[in-house]
C-alpha cells in the first residue's frame, strides 16, 4: 500500500495561474502524476475549509483512493516542537493501522515549519518515507520536472538523528541520569513495548531483586543487563557469563570457584564469577544451559548470599546483584524438566520481557542509522543509506533481531563500493521456513497434554490476530476466518493471561 502524507495549504485544492485561470493546486497536481492507495491530509485551524474542499475534489477525480483528514491541533503554527510531536503521534497511529505500508511525504503544501518538521522526521529515520516536492509550473524545464524527489542520503545534506528513548518513570522515582546512561550504552528505541521494558528495568535497578530478562536471541538482553547495572549505582564490576559456552562439568567451578587441590589439576586457588562480581552485578545469559544440580546451587546463592567454592571448608559471603536471562519461556522449560520450578518462582518476581525487533518496526530505521554511524566512525568514512534500503530493512522479519540488523549494516558499510548503501546491496537471510506443519510440532513428553497444547495454540493465534488488527475485533476475525463474536469470547481468555 502506498500512502501520501501531506499538509494542506491555501493553494489547495485550486490556485490561480499567471493568466488568472483556475488550476489544480499542489496536491491535486501530485495525485494526477503519482499513484496512491491512500491519502492523509493534515489540516490546521486556518486550512479547515481548504482541506475539506481538497478531500471533496480528490473524491471526485480519484474515487478509488481513500482520503482521510487528520487535524493538527496546533495553536502556534511556527512552534517546531509542537508540530513534530503532532506529526509523530499521527504517523505512529497511521502506521499501526497499515503495517508495511510505503510512505511518500509531500512538502509542497503547508507552512515552511511543517516542511522542516517532515524533513527532520524522515531524515532521522522515524518515518521511512520518500520526500517529494511539486515544482511551480513557471519553473518547469526539460531538466527541472514537475515532481522533484529529495534524496535524503545525498552527501550534501547534513545527517540528522532522532532522540533516543525518553523514559517516564514518574515524579516519585528519583533516577540517575538515565538519558546519559542510555546514550553511553547505545540503547536506541521509542517503541511503546520497548520503552515499557526499559522503564521496568530502571525501576528494578534500584532494588536488590534478582532480575529475569526474557527475550529472543539478539534482542538486547546484555544491553539491558548493562543498563540495570549502571542504574543500580553498584561500585563493583559487571561480570558477564554465557552459560551455553561452558561445559556442564565446569559450570560449578566457573560460577563458584575452587580451592587449591580441590580436584586433579587444581594447582592453585581460583575465584568464581560470583566472587569476581563482589559488590557488583553478575549477568548469566542462557540460564537454561545449566544443569538442574547447578541450578539448585545457584538458588541457594540467591537466597543465602553465600558461595561454596569446590574444596572450601566453609561458605564465603558475597554481595552480588544477579541478573538472569533466557531466550526460551521458562514456564515451558519447567514443563520440559529443564528448569527448576523453585528457581523459576524465585526469579520471576522481577521479570522483564524484551520485544523482538519485528514487533518494534518503527525503531528499525533509527537502529540502522545508529549502527551506520558506529561503522562510519570506526571505518572513518561518510557512508549513508537510501530511503529504499531503509524501507526494506523495516519490512524484513529479523529472525536474528537487533544483532542481525547490526551485522547487516556493518557488512554493507564495509563492502559497499558507493557512498550510499542501496536496497540491492542488503544481504538479508530468508526467514526460517518449514517443509511441513509437522516440523512445528513439539515432541511429546511425560505430562504432555494434547488438549492443553491445542488450546494454547488456539489462544495464541487469537491473541496475535487481535494484536495485528490493533484491537479491532472485526479485522481480527477476518484474519482468522472466524466470526467477530468468536474473537470477543476468546478476548476474555487471552486478556486474563496477559
Short description:
This protein is of the alpha/beta class and 498 residues long. It has helices at residues 26-33, 48-61, 80-97, 112-123, 178-185, 192-205, 221-232, 248-256, 273-276, 292-304, 330-335, 341-347, 364-379, 387-395, 401-415, 450-468, 473-480, 484-497, and strands spanning 2-7, 14-16, 22-24, 38-43, 66-71, 102-106, 129-134, 147-150, 211-214, 238-242, 257-258, 270-271, 281-285, 306-307, 316-317, 321-326, 350-353, 384-385, 420-421.
Uncertain stretches of 5 or more adjacent residues: 431-436
CATH class of the largest domain: Alpha Beta
> Domains counted in the coordinates: how many?
3
Strand content: 15-25%
Task: Summarize this structure as a short list of keywords or feature phrases.
Arc Repressor Mutant, subunit A, 41% helix, 5-stranded parallel β-sheet, Rossmann fold, 19 strands, 498 residues, 6-stranded mixed β-sheet, alpha/beta
Could you please describe the fold and organization of this structure?
The chain is α/β, with parallel strands linked by helices and 498 residues long. The chain folds into three domains: 2-150, Rossmann fold; 191-353, Rossmann fold; 437-497, Arc Repressor Mutant, subunit A (Orthogonal Bundle), CATH 1.10.10. Helix content is 41%, strand content 15%. The protein is built from 18 helices and 19 strands. It has helices at residues 26-33, 48-61, 80-97, 112-123, 178-185, 192-205, 221-232, 248-256, 273-276, 292-304, 330-335, 341-347, 364-379, 387-395, 401-415, 450-468, 473-480, 484-497; strands at 2-7, 14-16, 22-24, 38-43, 66-71, 102-106, 129-134, 147-150, 211-214, 238-242, 257-258, 270-271, 281-285, 306-307, 316-317, 321-326, 350-353, 384-385, 420-421. The strands form six sheets. Strands 5-4-1-6-7-8 form a six-stranded mixed beta sheet, with helices on both faces. It has a five-stranded parallel beta sheet with strand order 10-13-16-9-17. Strands 2-3 form a two-stranded antiparallel ribbon. α3 (80-97) packs across α4 (112-123), α16 packs across α17 and α16 (450-468) crosses α18. It is elongated. It starts with a strand and ends with a helix. Mean pLDDT is 85; it is low at 431-436.
